[in-house]
Amino acid sequence: MKKKSFNLSGVMQSKITWAVVAELLILLVCFIIRPDFFSIKYQPATGMLYGSLIDILNRSAEITIIAMGMTLVIALGGTDLSVGSLVALSGALALKFLRWDVLVYNTPGDYTVKPFILVILVPLAVCTLMGMFNGFMISRIGMQPIIATLILMVCGRGIAQIVTNGKQFTTLYSPFRVIGQGSLFFLPMPIIITAVVVIGVSLFVRKTAFGTMVESVGINPSASRLSGIDSKKIIMIVFALTAFLSAISGLITASRVMSNDSNNFGINFEMDAILAVVIGGTNMSGGKFSLAGTVIGSIIIRTIVTFVYYFGIVSEATMAFKALIIIVVIVLQSEPVRKKMSKFGKKKVTGGVQHA
Amino acid sequence: MKKFLAVVLALALVVALGASAFADIKVAFSQIGQESDWRTANTDSIKGTIEAHEGWELVYDDAQQKQENQIKALRNFITQGVDYILFTGVVSTGWDEVLAEVNEAEIPLILVDRMPDCADKIDYAAAFGGDFVEEGRRQVAWAGEYLKSIGRGDEEVCVAIMEGTTGADAQVGRTEGNLAALKEYPNMKLVAQQSGNFTRTEGQAVMESWLKSVDKIDVLIVQNDDMGLGAIDAIKAAGKVPGKDIIIVGCDSVKAAFEAIVAGEMNCTVECTPLYGPFVEKTIEALEAGETFEKTIVHPEEGVYDCVGGIDLGTVTSVLAADVIDSRVY
């Protein structure tokens, strides 16, 4: 790192820089309207830090976790549309094992719960299998990813409905509450889980050759096959990983409200995850990817939502408002704008040299 | 062998057709699918009533949330020559053609729960659905009367309204009712209004933000119970006591809301009943007897269930939730 001299034009040209700039701009607007948007207090009732910035990080967890997998999927040149359905399925499976039909509030001790480990392991395992099914259809059968995952996107919610008999269960089982509403180091648990996932996936792809292989398959599958990369295996692993991460996301979603909802859990998550990846600077056509960019992309999406809630944008205008901000972010990152900006950056640097 | 099979099949078909043609009354029901507990209870109620009725035969179709399935089902009903068609449309537009065909076939049409946009252009025997505006009015009226009953009638209170999915019939109607009723209670001031999309997750997220951005919320009106159940967790996370620091008034009357009221974490839920079976039965019996109905929507009788009971809302008096919780089926 030390050998690399600071290159302003390079920084200006990087898509991540512009994602960060966009996020800071939105936060700046928040700050101008309401400086107390940034206030963070300690909340003794829950033992957690409490503030809008914490909310943004907390509520972006589901998308960030899924988007880690989605980044790799997109780097392979594919898309995974099934993640939202898998979130619903994961929640349904978890609640299936936590269900109780008795009065929840009156008799908190009186319920049947399968061993807690099943509540966690079954959703993770089932969803990973579903992901392997996606990977199988794509790598062995040769389906296009968008079609293969569309199958599960459509039928995943149906399976979730079958699992719970179309019912919505509620639970008060406190160990399950920890996943979505618990805390560690004064932070909401979803933030901690996200941090672990992001660090884990980053280490996995960057400390091993896996990331490079993914990029290579994404840029040119046949060339990478000829150079000895088992692209089928790579595709399989990436789709299984994405499904596994969707299951984690589903557990968080279910734990937040302590219930399942096969119709509404994970709705549009595939779109938000893809958007997070794109805002983060990974190209939809595959190849190079940026996990850090994706994290920022996901945070931007959640910041917009929080902005809407916090400042009470009328509900009819919410969608249009979100679209507007996203257009601005994407335009900021577009090739022509970045080129202009990098020229501007270069001028500044050379100017500085002349003065010196 | 093949010939024999074909003859047997043909015979079976004739017998089946004959048998169905001689059944007394065929009541067809095109339901939109199973989207929620409410819908399941709705389906069970109507199906159960018709099946249990002597001399009635049910022809049921579940459209799985797809309009094309429903149009197909309606045309099937016509070819089968059913006697009555019960219909709940998955969307409000696009029914003109197929419902005109139903009219041409002179099969009495009974609109259930949702009214298609073309309702005034077609003939229907009867229509039945919830009164969303009245539900919205009751929510605010309950809060206003409850505040009076605990001696806070003159105190200025801050009200937040969490709306349903923007554009849904229930959201439009309940918002209209909410806002109209707020005018009746000058001490209640509207401080926040936002959509929580009828889901627990979003209800929780919206409440979480409100607790930081809105200085004071005394009354939370949620346009369905699920959003209220989500908001309860957010209120607890902010170190406040739901049901006490913030009065929560829900809508729908699902079982979980009753449990929350009994536990003291919610204060009231305004009923929106899915149990249409008895009405359907009464209507068909009346139509059979030669009666006719006017082209207006008939609303079911619905209650208001709360934590105290006996609050007079003009059209209805609230019932203590704890007294009826065991008899709730959805």
How do the strands line up in the largest sheet of chain A? 1-2
Please give the domain count of chain A.
1
Unreliable residue runs of chain A: 101-110, 348-356
Helix content of chain A: 55-70%
Query: Distance N terminus to C terminus of chain A?
Result: 25 Å
Broad structural category of chain A: mainly alpha
Mean pLDDT of chain B: 85
Q: Give the spatial strand order of the biggest sheet of chain B.
A: 7-6-8-9-10-12-13
CATH architecture of the largest domain in chain B: 3-Layer(aba) Sandwich
CATH class of chain A: Mainly Alpha
Q: Give the SSE string of chain B.
A: HEHEHEHEEHEHEHEHEHEHEEEH
Distance separating the two termini of chain B: 53 Å
State the fourth-level CATH superfamily of the largest domain in chain B. Response regulator
Number of helices of chain A: 16
**Mean pLDDT, all residues of chain A:** 82
Q: What proportion strand of chain A?
A: under 5%
What is the number of strand segments of chain A?
4
State the share of residues found in helices of chain B, binned by percent.
Answer: 40-55%
Number of strands of chain B: 13
- Please give the radius of gyration of chain A in angstroms: 22 Å
